[in-house]
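Lab notebook page, bench 4
Experiment: in silico fold of construct C2
Operator: M.H.
Input chain length: 162 residues
Purpose: comparison with the prior construct
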Amino acid sequence: MTNDEANEASEVVPTMMDKIIFEVLLFETPNDRDASQECLVILMDALAKVNMTYLRTHPRTPTLYQSPIRYYFDPTAPDPWQDIPSTLAKGWGDCEDLACWRIAEYRMKGIDARPLIRWRKNGARYTYHALVRLPDGRTEDPSLSMGMRTGKMLRRPVYLTP
């Protein structure tokens, strides 16, 4: 082996690029709720498409319900949204992370799943919860499946009643 070959073999391969963070100012006033919801659905759809790319290029990725992932509410502000590899690396995800993973799984099977946002008032503020809307009208809550509220890991679809 020449010196050049040895140097090439020992070089650390750098990452392709740094992480990407969107900074979006939503939820400024209660009057912004409709526009905020529209933007959240757009961002969820984008994350689902990112996840589809990951699933296509990593076909051995476990499904969400076969994975070791748990629901965990991330109190960090601003809320970091995670793709599948980030969620796998951390071992947990919150509602939009899990919902976008499930949407990607459905879409990879040809099922036109869509992001859905539900709002609840918590004191003086509104908070959102990310869900999966299926073409037959059912609403799936992956967070409940992965331990939200009870800590019980069901690891199967949980559908909300209207």
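Observations: The mean pLDDT is 89. The longest helix spans residues 33-57.
Next step: discuss at group meeting.
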